[in-house]
Amino acid sequence: MRRLAELQPGRPGSIFTSDLSVNEFLLVREAGFRPIGLVLGSSIYHVGIQIGRWGKNQELDTLSQAMYHARELAMTRMEAEAAQLGADGIVGVRLTVEAREFGSDVAEFIAVGTAVKADEAPPGGGSWRNNKGQPFTSDLSGQDFWTLIRAGYAPLGMTMGTCVYHIAHQKLGSVFNNIGKNVEIEQFTQALYDARELAMARMQAEAEALHAEGIVGVQLNSHNHRWGGHTTEFFAIGTAVRPLRPDHVIDRPQMVLSLDD
User: Fold this and answer.
1) Does domain 16-243 bear CATH number 1.20.272.10?
2) I need a labelling partner for 231 at 20 to 30 A (CA). Which of 22, 41, 123, 245 fits?
3) pTM for this structure?
């Protein structure tokens, strides 16, 4: 809190901190936002134990909940720092998981970004903050953030969904039958499809809660962490956006061709 107090906008001698590159910093300023300071949130989390049945495809609910809750703690703490600074949003957010030496089931979840303050209210009035009254969050690059604002859209928040899934082992007979053959392993295909679908649906539900028009920059990643080859986490994340005006239409630049004789 002492560090954040020294970053308060308008305080004599205050300087901003940022993890934006030079190009990103200049484009964020061009979009009408001033960096205030680097904000972060952290959660060191012990992930519980849940065993999947050997021959069954199933979500491991305890692990899914742990992975989501740990990230949510890191994100809300970062947002709290931004709110303390009076920021309108956070850009360039990075959300990472790092294994620590405290134990095989302990990891640190870290959220880091640059808090920004808008030079003026959005077109049509209102606030840059989302419908929950929190500073918006975005993992878009400075270049993509500039393009989004210039096109008449605003970020609402990073939305995410996770699913830790146990993929059934093949029966011994199936393993032998498939030796030397090109053949789809249907239970593996279905398991991975179902797990990704659960992660995507949960991310979309978060966007709906923010009254978003859509989600841009979606990333769908898989992580084994330390669970072994048949247990995988699928993690979906993106930035929910809304038009700045209800009647907004994106201007399409006209192409002019010059033909020489």
Assistant:
1) no
2) 41
3) 0.81
